[in-house]
Specification:
Strand content: 25-35%
Distance between the termini: 65 Å
Radius of gyration: 33 Å
Helix content: under 10%
Largest sheet: 10 strands, mixed
Low-confidence stretches: 5-31
Structural class: mainly beta
Strand order of the largest sheet: 1-8-9-14-15-12-11-10-13-16
Number of helices: 8
Length: 866
């Protein structure tokens, strides 16, 4: 635990009981052994304060009746945790136990300076009685002795036998009378939570096996009954330390990076001192706990049979844009990718739905696919290009094996406000596949419903937690939109076989799951034994947030289902992150590659007649301005008879089937839905659509003729920008500014307001403070602190009139088109360019070769002489 139990954003551990524990709650929670014969105690010096017994200090309630009083007390040292990285104190217990079951005989002595005492000493301690608060519960505190003025070792004390405690407890306050005492749990206890092991050195233990979430429980008990029993079946196993990020991490199964401690592992007994901290009773062991690896790591998923394997995997914010939701830096990203690659290889799915991947077109998706193929061989996996679905920062995506499956038609993405989440629209993505072996086809639909976190604050909000986590109403709305859309997909395509996978953020017995079940979709996890239906562990409770659903026609074609438990049961400290890891146990294995376990389904598809459906890919624009052309690029149309585009402003046009691009100029600002449609035989069609935001144009006023004429991104800090005045008159520079947007930022990282005037035909050069060259009249500016992946804008009266790169988008390491690149290069505007231009917004591509000449690194001899 951290010093004096200060935890900041502590994750309070809670737990649940299995059905067998519900009836056991009436059992006695303690079993005190017979009191040994009384032996003479060593004599002590006269007490400097009023001498009190420990049970008198503890009192019969939660708080001491002697709080804030100076006392002296005597007892036997039962546990010594005085080291600087420990609790900075020791526990004592009076050897002559009283007969009052409501008072404790043990007490913690906080002595940060250290004292020459050891376990078994009979000591006299003088100090102040304090109720130490370390959690959010005002009434729950640790009674302790602090501000210690004197400690005397009187001699060797008698042996203190541990008080026997048995879970489940009789009531929630049962342990108060044992606070500070030496205790033992002589029963099988199961590890139910490992989340805080690396951070605070603690585990959550429970009686009766692992604890299940109330809405995912294997029993028929009500959630209220489960929650009530749950609170009585748990105890925290701490490590006697006060530091954060302990080194070595306690309780792992091995000293190297193969070590783990999994939910489901067991102990036959625990002995230590009972304390209170951070809203939980906890045992600091005095005897090293001995674990049994009752739930060993699975090397591979269980066999699901079938000709086709389909899976869903949450990839825990796989972002190629660093410093956003996922990896903070390149080192973390490499670690994250390596673990996910091993997970994907181990799943060996023929069709794989991904959740929580960056919504940056296909950049993150293509990167992950390339990494997997680098290990398995080129072309082992391909990805489905669904563009940029919705507007949320994360999206869902698909990988598939071309050697096993063929996509039929194009991916489908609904434009339905029912899929709204806090970050924008997060719709599902569907793709129809056919097995190459027999043409058996099915729809794979990948989903990610709204999470249970970040609860609304308004009183009476329907999305407040009413027993199914926050945002249950929103998830149910999403589930309703999903079932309706899937029904439409089936009706329009004639394909009734549908497999839905994903992170539904709902447990098995919650409303969103019931909504899909009532529409005829089978929750496949219910085919598993009740105690195996989990993919996630939260606050000590196991349950399933990740699911697979089979439509009624597909049910008989399901050969098996399993959950590969490689993530949820593993300690957080084993993941790819590097922060808070003084003892870094990272390994490039599937284990803790994410926080969700993947679901794997086997399919024996019925043979079908071959289906030829139109297939359409394209990159659609997302923004533009009035009077400037926007373009659809990278059009690829196959197996269709007619190609057309509806620009959403009343303009429709037919395109040649071989067209690779299309452009349009809008006359008015607004939001427009652009739809590219490829029609085919039998009423089948493929559509790519996107919402396009057109902003009002800001026509350049007189004098707004400047533009970037040279860009230097050289070695070290050799960085510079040249701005040119092509007009015939001097320009007042006070109307202009240059802005730097780093790493895909949407707000300026640096701004340089210009001043003075620039004569006709002359240049202004901005340079880095450590620029190695020499340019007469140059200005040192922080906007030149750019890298090859950053964007720069030139603005006239707050209107962007020229830009290098695309604001709000991070291309990775460089802006690139063909052989042209902004990384470690000099770019010079071509002679025919006489005004600035703004690249189209991502995901449309920026062809920098059309206006810029490429020069070698550190070519800046021509700076200042356009």
């Amino acid at each position: 635990m951290p010093s004096r139990f200060t935890r900041g954003a502590l994750r309070v551990t809670t737990s649940l009981l299995l059905l067998g524990l519900l009836a056991a709650c009436s059992e006695d929670e303690t079993d005190t052994p017979p009191v040994p014969p009384v032996q003479p105690l060593p004599s002590c010096a006269a007490a400097p304060n009023t001498l009190r017994t420990i049970n008198a200090i503890q009192g019969s309630g939660k708080l001491s009746p002697l709080a804030d009083q100076l006392v002296s007390v005597r007892g036997v040292v039962t546990a010594d945790f005085q080291a600087d990285d420990q609790l900075k104190g020791f526990f004592i217990q009076q050897p002559d136990a009283d007969k009052d079951p409501l008072t404790s005989d043990g007490l913690f002595v906080y002595a940060p300076g250290g004292a020459d005492v050891k376990q078994g000493d009979y000591v006299q301690v003088s100090g102040k009685v304090v109720e130490f608060k370390s959690g959010s519960n005002e009434a729950e505190r640790l009674t302790e002795l602090t501000e210690v003025s004197a400690i005397t070792v009187c001699g060797a004390g008698p042996r203190i036998a541990p008080q026997l405690i048995k879970l489940p407890l009789a009531n929630k306050d049962a342990l108060e009378a044992s606070e500070g005492m030496l205790v033992a749990f002589n029963q099988t206890l199961t590890v139910s939570e490992v989340y805080q092991l690396g951070r605070y050195g603690e585990l959550l233990l429970s009686a009766g096996g692992r604890l299940f979430q109330a809405n995912n429980h294997p029993s028929a008990a009500t959630p209220a009954e489960i929650n009530a029993a749950n609170a009585l079946a748990r105890i925290v196993l701490d490590d006697g330390r006060s530091i954060q990020n302990p080194k070595p991490i306690p309780y792992l199964s091995a000293a190297d990076n193969s070590g783990t401690r999994r939910v489901g592992d067991t102990l036959n007994s625990v002995q230590g001192v009972l304390s209170w901290g951070a809203d939980a009773f906890r045992v600091h062991p005095t005897v090293a706990p001995v674990f049994t690896a009752s739930n060993p790591r699975p090397a591979a998923p269980l066999n699901v049979g079938g000709q086709i394997r389909a899976s869903g995997l949450n990839v825990l914010n796989y972002f190629t844009t660093l410093g956003q939701r996922g990896a903070n830096n390149e080192a973390e990203f490499q670690r994250q990718r390596a673990k996910l690659v091993e997970t994907i290889i181990g799943l060996n799915a023929d069709a794989l739905g991904l959740m929580e991947i960056e919504n940056n077109g296909t950049l993150a998706l293509a990167d992950l696919a390339a990494a997997v193929n680098a290990k398995l061989g080129a072309g082992t996996y391909a990805y489905i290009d669904a563009g940029k679905p919705g507007s949320d920062a994360i999206t869902v995506a698909m990988l598939y094996k071309p050697a096993k499956l063929k996509p039929i038609g194009s991916p489908q993405v609904p434009n339905d406000p029912g899929f709204e989440v806090a970050g924008g629209l997060r719709p599902p993505v569907a793709q129809r596949f056919a097995a190459l072996s027999n043409n058996g086809s099915f729809w794979l639909v990948v989903n990610h419903l709204k999470s249970k976190g970040s609860c609304p604050s308004a009183a009476g909000d329907v999305n407040l937690d009413q027993g199914q986590g926050c945002w249950n109403a929103a998830r149910t709305t999403q589930a309703t939109a999903l079932k309706n859309w899937v029904a439409t997909l089936s009706q329009q395509s004639g394909e009734a076989d549908v497999l839905m996978v994903g992170d539904f953020n709902a447990y098995l017995n919650e409303d969103p799951i019931k909504t899909l079940e009532t529409a005829g979709h089978e929750a496949l996890l219910k085919r598993l034994p009740a105690t195996e239906r989990y993919t996630y562990v939260f606050s000590g409770e196991s349950g399933a947030l990740d699911h697979a659903f089979a439509s009624s026609s597909l049910r008989s074609q399901i050969s098996g289902v399993t959950v590969w438990h490689v993530n949820a049961e593993e300690p957080l400290v084993l993941d790819y992150n590097t922060e808070f890891k003084t003892d870094d146990r990272y390994a490039a294995t599937p284990y803790r590659s994410s926080d969700h376990d993947p679901v794997l389904v086997g399919l024996n598809l019925n043979a079908d007649a071959p289906v030829i459906a139109p297939s359409l890919n394209a990159t659609l624009p997302s923004s533009g301005s009035v009077g400037s052309a926007v373009s659809i690029s990278a059009i690829s149309a196959q197996d269709g008879s007619a190609l057309s585009v509806d620009w959403g402003d009343g303009t429709q046009e037919s395109l040649a089937l071989t067209a690779s691009s299309a452009s349009h100029t809008y006359a008015a600002a607004g939001n427009y839905t652009v739809s590219l449609v490829l029609s085919g035989a039998g009423g089948l069609s493929a559509t790519r659509s996107a919402t396009l935001t057109i902003s009002a144009a800001t026509p350049p006023a007189s004098g707004a003729a400047l533009f970037f004429s040279e860009y230097v991104e050289g070695s070290s800090n050799n960085k510079a920008l040249e701005i040119y005045n092509p007009s015939s008159t001097a320009v007042d520079l006070s109307d202009y500014s240059v802005k730097l947007y780093s790493n895909g930022a949407t707000t300026a990282t640096q701004t340089q307001a210009l001043s003075g005037s620039l004569a006709a035909g002359q240049t202004l050069v901005l340079v880095h403070a450590q620029f190695a060259g020499s340019v007469a009249g140059s200005v040192v500016s922080a906007v030149t602190n750019f890298n090859g992946d950053d964007a720069l804008t030139l603005e006239y009266r707050a209107a962007v009139i020229d830009a290098i790169g695309q604001v709000g988008f991070d291309p990775g390491t460089e802006w690139k088109s063909g052989s042209h690149s902004t990384l470690n290069k000099t770019l010079r505007r071509k002679a025919g360019v006489v005004q600035g231009s703004v690249p189209p917004a991502a995901p449309a591509s920026w062809d920098l070769s059309s206006e810029w000449e490429l020069l070698d690194i550190d070519s800046f001899a021509g700076l200042g002489t356009r």
